[in-house]
Automatic annotation (TrEMBL):
Protein name, entry field: Metal-dependent hydrolase
Molecular function, one GO term: hydrolase activity
Origin: domain of life: Bacteria
Keyword field: Hydrolase, Membrane, Transmembrane, Transmembrane helix
Transmembrane regions: 55-72, 84-106, 140-157
InterPro entries: YdjM-like
Length: 158
């Protein structure tokens, strides 16, 4: 998935958490957008073709961070819920990846899981070839459905 779909899902998570917890959406929406993008911070030091192999894409990391936040925060648990929900949603979206999957049982098992057929990255640096691969593998369809679903959820819960 792309930054755009991750951000839209984070925004919808923020709106839903605001409705569930009563916390102001001016806190929950930007918080969840940021957290939903956070697993890809490893793109600063890893190539896009292998960034799912890093600790930022291990579900156990997001579960542990959520538990730590829950212990440290007050009664609302908005930070721990945001970390858990938006972090895990990022990984669920990445499981639709066309070139790599997600290591759901890492660090205990290195098997990659994907809801789609994995197509190894064939277009190394050519933007046109990458766009064609994006369209040809159906990834654009998943992006479109994800973004539309997120907009729909925001409109319902806002």
């Amino acid at each position: 998935m792309t930054f755009l779909s991750h951000a839209f899902v984070g925004a919808s998570a923020g709106v839903i958490l605001s409705n569930v917890t009563g916390v102001d959406p001016s806190l929950t929406v930007p918080l969840n957008i940021g957290i939903s993008l956070l697993p890809d911070i490893n793109l600063l030091w890893r190539k896009i073709s292998d960034h799912h192999d890093d600790i930022t894409h291990y579900p156990i990391v997001w579960i542990i961070l959520s538990i730590v936040a829950s212990v440290l925060e007050g009664n609302t648990h908005i930070y721990s819920l945001s970390i858990l929900f938006s972090g895990i949603m990022h990984l669920i979206l990445d499981t639709f990846g066309m070139t790599i999957g997600v290591h759901w049982f890492a660090p205990f098992n290195s098997k990659q899981f994907s809801f789609t057929k994995i197509h190894p990255q064939t277009a190394s640096g050519d933007l046109k070839a990458k766009i064609l691969q994006f369209l040809r593998t159906g990834q654009a369809y998943y992006e479109f459905v994800t973004i539309l679903s997120s907009i729909f959820l925001v409109l319902i819960f806002l």
